[in-house]
Amino acid sequence: MTSAQDADAQWWATAVSHVEPGSIELRERPVQDLIGTVGLVDVIWLMLRGSTPAPRESALLEAALVAGVDHGPQAPSIAAARMAVTCGVGLNNAVATGVNMLGDTHGGAGQQCVEMLTDIRDLRASGGGWQQAAQEVMADWQSRSRYLPGFGHRFHPVDPRRDPLIRLVQQAVSDNVVGGDFLNAGLAVEGILRRRRAGARPVPMNIDGATAVIYAELGFSAPLARGLFVLSRSVGILAHAWEESGQGRRNKGPIPRDVLPARLPQPKDA
Q1: What is the pLDDT of residue 105?
Q2: pLDDT in tens, 79-101
Q3: Which of 227, 253, 208 has its CA nearest to residue 68?
Q4: What residue ranges do the domains of the chain occupy?
Q5: Where do the record's region annotations for Disordered lie (predicted)?
Q6: What whole-number distance in Å separates Cα of residue 220 and Cα of residue 228?
Q7: Would you state the pLDDT for residue 166?
Q8: Range picked from 157-161, 169-173, 189-193 for highest mean pLDDT
Q9: Which residues contact 126 (CB under 8 A, 6 or more apart)?
Q10: In whole angstroms, what is the distance from residue 66 CA to residue 71 CA?
């Protein structure tokens, strides 16, 4: 190999995959050895971490991914994909449109919750209990935002995905599959919120909080919590885009045409 060829090879050097004529390796594992023997969740873990998970770790990750697949057409990412596919674009474009809606406000709470739970875990390690650490970190977060990521839901009084996910984590802690620090941090926040809002609508952990606990317990970094949510939600986005493509509608807007007002109201700050 010439120095120029070596420089070209180094430019695209990666530990994720290696491809040459007749050979495809994913994290140094021949793809033919993975096909039919390893599940998709295990391959996701392999590609991101360079190893395959233990069966219980894989099951926990799969539960989190299943829980985040869909939340109906009122979710901006799914609504955008459904509208996009009526505009004459392909499924790939429609899915990309939906995925690109997953930002800090819609889709980013899982990443933010992992960051918050990590702050609580780290502060608690320096001394004190879970409640004290949670109170201090919550105060810091709430000095910057009125929302605590991963807690409360605008639609569900209690997110139906919370309990089964937390039960799985609790069992995994009991069986020494995961350590439990992030679970303790999340439950501490939930307990403080419950006491603060005694008699008012509760603010329990939501899907972002419950999956953040799982991703953090499994050792995924905060940015990957968002990345994994994107993978999960992409399934629902694809399903909705595909269904919409068979409806025969063209240029679908955010509201039905028969309720479109003759003149749109002006913004309040206009």
Answers
A1: 86
A2: 999 999 999 999 999 999 999 99
A3: 208
A4: 1-37, 40-253
A5: 246-270
A6: 9
A7: 96
A8: 169-173
A9: none
A10: 12
